[in-house]
Amino acid sequence: MTRLAVFDFDSTLMDGETIDFLARERGVGDEVAQITDRAMRGELDFFESLQHRVSLLAGLPLARAQHVCAHLPLMNGAADVIAWLKANGYVVVVFSGGFHLATSVAQTKLGFDAAFANTLHHKDGVLSGKVGGEMMFSHSKGDMLLRMQALLGVGEDSTLVVGDGANDLSMFAHATHRVAFCAKPILKEKATICVDSKDLRLLIPHLQT
C-alpha cells in the first residue's frame, strides 16, 4: 500500500526561512523577517505577503541567491526521517511556499521524491522582484495534496503532513496524520502530533505506534 508524506520546507526540513536568508543578503532582513513571521501566524494574506517580500529582493544578483540557497542549514534529523519514511513505503514530497532555488538543492541532499514550490523571476542575472509558481496562495498546499492523493491513489488515512505555519493549514484539512513541527499556535490547534524540539527524528516514534 502506497503512503504519502508531505513536508513543508522552510522551518521544517530547513532550519529557517529561505526568503529571510535572501533578504539578509539584500540588506532588508529585518523588514522581511517581520512580514514572514506575521504571515506564518496567519495574520497576513499569504499571497500578498509573499509578493511584498519578494519585491524587496529586487536587485539581488541571481548568483548570490543561488549561493545562499545552496548553503541553507538543513533541519536536524531531516535526512534520517526521510530515509525512515522511504524505507517504510512512503512517497515523500515537499510543498514549499518558498522557492525551487532552495528545494532543488535540498532534494539532492535529502533524497525526497518531488518538490512543488515557487520560482523567483530574474532577468539579466538579477532578481526582478517578481514571483510565480505552484505554491502562491494559502490554499495551494491543500489543492496540490488532493491532486497528489488522486494521482497516487492515496486516501487521507494514508497521508502524513508536516508543517509549522498558517499556510500549512490547507493540507492539514486532507490528512489524518498531521504534525505541527515547532509550529505556530494556529497550526498546533489542528495537529494530531506536536513536536516542539528541532529534531525531526522525534517524529519517528509517533509513526511506529
Molecular structure report:
It is a single chain. Helices cover 42% and strands 22% of the residues. It is of the alpha/beta class. The chain has one domain: 3-Layer(aba) Sandwich (Rossmann fold), CATH 3.40.50.1000. The mean pLDDT is 96.
Specify the CATH homologous superfamily: HAD superfamily/HAD-like
Q: Could you give the count of β-strands?
A: 7
Helix content bin: 40-55%
Q: Distance between the terminal alpha carbons, to the nearest Å?
A: 18 Å
**Tertiary shape:** globular
Low-pLDDT runs of 5+ residues are none
Number of helices: 10
Which sheet architecture does the biggest sheet show?
7 strands, mixed
Largest sheet, order of strands side by side?
A: 4-3-2-1-5-6-7
CATH topology: Rossmann fold
CATH architectural name: 3-Layer(aba) Sandwich
Number of domains: 1
How much is the average pLDDT?
Answer: 96
Structural class: alpha/beta
Oligomer designation:
single chain
Specify Rg, calculated over alpha carbons.
16 Å
Strand percentage, roughly? 15-25%
Q: Please give the CATH class.
A: Alpha Beta
Order of helices and strands: EHHHHHEHEEHEHEHEH
